């Protein structure tokens, strides 16, 4: 008989706890804060550090709270990037923190693997209430993992190899997801990619039907609103695309990794269009910003095609996919969304900002379009009519397509303390993706800041165009060096 190991006493566990308590990340952060860029240059991505220093973003953020960031000088910034949409409920929400602490304090039997997770079952049940036409959930660690799983599920369910995606799409950077990436910048140097992936124009039903007619396509992957450019489809596009998929036996997969969990003023962006996909992919905001989590929400018959026998019960999985911290983060995030009515807040304040921007755009020839749903908003810039501005615009475009947007985003950051981003490589759209916790005073901050910077861009010469000259010179030097 094998002897049982001795039980650890409370005193022994307490000693281990005191030893672990010697690790203090906050203290380490404070001690080494001044070294952050040197550490990253030496041990991580030096090129990214050089980018931050070139454009003046190396302010050293030391704290985040809700929709705000604070730098080492104590200045407050309004974060319209929110970790690429991760912080829908804001940074460091106290309810989320409490949920994670409760898990750590409970000594739960996490990731037993030869058992099942109560927390995963509860979160899956709750997610399915937002998509009652679907039946099953598969948990992963990220959006890219969710996209990879959906590709496998689609192939297993249909017996087909093909996938169709849209130009300017983004489904992740792992190889399957990258094979469906509509931006060549991310693919350069990494080929060859998976075969049987077809790209079609977004919002083009004729192109979709042509791609499906061979009846060899397992799934059509589409973002209801594209993150790269904030491209919004025609009202009937997604419903008709779903109809075409049914006609040709192709699964309709809605990638809601950025648009889902309330971002657009509905829980899923697809809800604006009355469509019931065969699979929905979510991640980012579901994490609450602390513990990565992704999910595939799907139909039972698709799930059963994958896990179809006892010996295939674990034919696809993810080691950390159902860990208790991730499940608690997802559950707490849904609690906050509902109790604080953040989805309704996103709808109301998003409408306010878009309306304000459209009124503002009438006075500025550089603003080509304003579009968005909820708090996913794009301001697109285009070639001006007046001779002096057109000459300056064309000079920047010759050096680097899309460079003009940096003339908006950098002054927004440096002068007005607003953090935002260009919505893709070679893109002329500034994207707003704030936390859903923003309020009316933040809207006023956004509106006044954009108005001031865009007004300055219509003066030539001005500080904005001086910045453009500097950026153009950097771009030319980098090209010569390469």
Secondary structure: elements and pairs:
Elements (H helix, E strand, L loop, with lengths): L9 H11 L4 H8 L3 H8 L2 H10 L5 E5 L2 E4 L4 E4 L2 H4 L8 H12 L12 H11 L7 E5 L2 H16 L3 E5 L8 H5 L4 H4 L9 E4 L4 H8 L4 E6 L14 H12 L2 E5 L23 E4 L11 E5 L1 H7 L17 H16 L2 H20 L5 E7 L2 E6 L5 H13 L6 H9 L3 E2 L1 E2 L6 E4 L7 H18 L5 H19 L1
Parallel strand pairs: 3-13, 5-6, 5-7, 7-8, 8-9
Antiparallel strand pairs: 1-2, 2-3, 4-10, 9-10, 11-12, 12-15, 14-15
Helix pairs in contact: 3-4, 6-14, 7-14, 8-13, 11-12, 15-18, 17-18, 17-19
List keywords for this structure.
Aspartate Aminotransferase, domain 2; 14% strand; 2 domains; Aspartate Aminotransferase, domain 1; four-stranded mixed beta sheet; alpha/beta; 482 residues
């Amino acid at each position: 008989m094998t002897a049982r190991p001795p039980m650890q006493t409370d005193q022994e566990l307490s000693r281990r706890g005191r030893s672990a308590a010697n690790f203090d990340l906050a203290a380490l952060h404070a001690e080494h804060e001044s070294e952050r860029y040197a550490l990253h240059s030496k041990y991580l991505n030096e090129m990214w550090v050089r980018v931050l220093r070139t454009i003046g973003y190396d302010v050293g953020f030391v704290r985040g709270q809700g929709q705000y960031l604070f730098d080492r000088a104590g200045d407050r910034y309004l974060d319209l990037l929110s970790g690429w949409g991760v912080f829908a409920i804001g940074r460091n929400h106290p309810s989320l923190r409490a949920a994670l602490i409760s898990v750590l304090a409970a000594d739960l039997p996490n990731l037993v693997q030869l058992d099942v997770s109560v927390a995963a079952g509860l979160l899956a049940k709750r997610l399915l209430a937002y998509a009652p036409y679907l039946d099953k959930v598969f948990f992963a660690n990220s959006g890219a993992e969710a996209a990879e799983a959906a590709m496998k599920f689609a192939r297993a369910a249909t017996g087909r190899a093909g996938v169709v995606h849209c130009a300017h799409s983004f489904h992740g950077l792992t190889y399957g997801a990258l094979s469906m990436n509509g931006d060549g910048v991310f693919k350069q140097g990494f080929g060859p990619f998976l075969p049987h992936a077809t790209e079609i124009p977004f919002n083009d039903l004729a192109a979709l039907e042509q791609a499906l007619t061979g009846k060899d396509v397992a799934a059509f992957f589409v973002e209801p609103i594209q993150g790269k450019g904030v491209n919004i489809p025609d009202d009937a596009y997604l419903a008709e695309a779903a109809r075409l998929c049914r006609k040709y036996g192709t699964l309709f997969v809605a990638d809601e990794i950025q648009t889902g969990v309330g971002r657009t003023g509905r829980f899923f962006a697809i809800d604006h269009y009355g469509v019931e996909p065969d699979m929905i992919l979510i991640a980012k905001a579901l994490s609450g910003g602390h513990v990565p989590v992704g999910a595939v929400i799907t139909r039972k018959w698709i799930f059963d095609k994958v896990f179809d026998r006892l010996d295939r019960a674990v034919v696809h999985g993810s080691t950390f996919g159902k860990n208790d911290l991730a499940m608690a983060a997802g559950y707490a995030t849904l609690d906050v969304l509902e109790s604080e009515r953040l989805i309704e807040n996103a709808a109301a304040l998003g409408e306010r900002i878009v309306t304000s921007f459209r009124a503002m755009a009438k006075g500025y020839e550089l603003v080509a379009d304003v579009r968005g749903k909820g708090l996913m908003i794009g301001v697109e810039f285009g070639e001006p009519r007046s001779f002096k501005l057109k000459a300056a615009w064309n000079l920047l475009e010759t050096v680097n397509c899309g460079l003009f947007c940096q003339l908006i985003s950098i002054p927004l950051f440096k002068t007005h303390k607003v953090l935002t981003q260009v919505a893709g490589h070679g893109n002329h759209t500034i994207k707003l993706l704030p936390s859903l916790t923003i309020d009316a005073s933040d809207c006023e901050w956004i509106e006044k800041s954009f108005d001031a910077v865009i007004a300055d861009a219509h003066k030539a010469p001005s500080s904005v165009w001086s910045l453009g000259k500097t950026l153009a010179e950097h771009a030319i030097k980098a090209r010569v060096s390469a």
